[in-house]
Amino acid sequence: MRGRYPIIALIVLGLALVGVVIFIVARGGAPEPADVEAPDNVIADDPEAPDASEQTQVRVSGTELTVRDAEGEILWLASFEGEIELDADNRVANATDVEWHFEGEGFDELSLKAPVMRAAWDERRLLFSDGVVIEAEEGNLQFSANSAEYQFDTRKVIGRGDVRFVRGSFAGRVQEVVIDNRAKVIRLKRGELARHQ
């Protein structure tokens, strides 16, 4: 029986993490953070596990996440190929090798890939870093940037730092791009844009 404790603990931690990430990410149209309790730490049912005062993070590797709105429509599909770490005390989740697909109205097949992601519940945003690639419209719309931010409230993706941009016959290099997925509008800031034949 004792040999099953690590497996049970891993399953409990994995399910808890997916639930908390869904809780953190899906709150875009929900009550403000002050109206929602932060999730407690997960304690494995293992007699050798550290007590609650010592355990502050949950880690799991490789998982997928689907987030739906109140009507059941899919908002995001996400996959986490690397490690996911939850700091429940600070209401933050970190993940590596992530891929987000933004569903619903907006640009067709808008996706974002990044080596590092930080979900900050109190700040109501996702932060992507270490080189971000954004694509849509079957590859006809492409961006790369040093970092990007997704705002829960506006549902805008903002790429910053050495942004390279291609859409159809246009290409550019700017410092910031704002992708307003609701309005299907792209704003380029501080840079240059050229048309290719």
Structural features, described:
Strand 9 (156-167) and strand 10 form a beta hairpin. The protein has one helix spanning 5-25; strands at 57-68, 74-87, 92-102, 110-120, 125-129, 132-136, 141-145, 147-151, 156-167, 170-180, 185-195. It has a single domain, classed as Sandwich (lipopolysaccharide transport protein A fold), CATH 2.60.450.10. It has 197 residues and is mainly beta. It contains one helix and eleven strands, in the order αβββββββββββ. Strands 4-5-8-9-7-6 form a six-stranded antiparallel barrel. The chain starts with a helix and ends with a strand.
Keywords, please?
197 residues; mainly beta; lipopolysaccharide transport protein A fold; disordered N terminus
Question: What's the structural blueprint in terms of helices and strands?
Answer:
Elements: H1 5-25, E1 57-68, E2 74-87, E3 92-102, E4 110-120, E5 125-129, E6 132-136, E7 141-145, E8 147-151, E9 156-167, E10 170-180, E11 185-195
* Averaged pLDDT: 75
Structural class per helix/strand content?
A: mainly beta
CATH homologous superfamily descriptor: Lipopolysaccharide (LPS) transport protein A like domain
What is the correct CATH architecture? Answer: Sandwich
Strand order across the largest sheet: 4-5-8-9-7-6
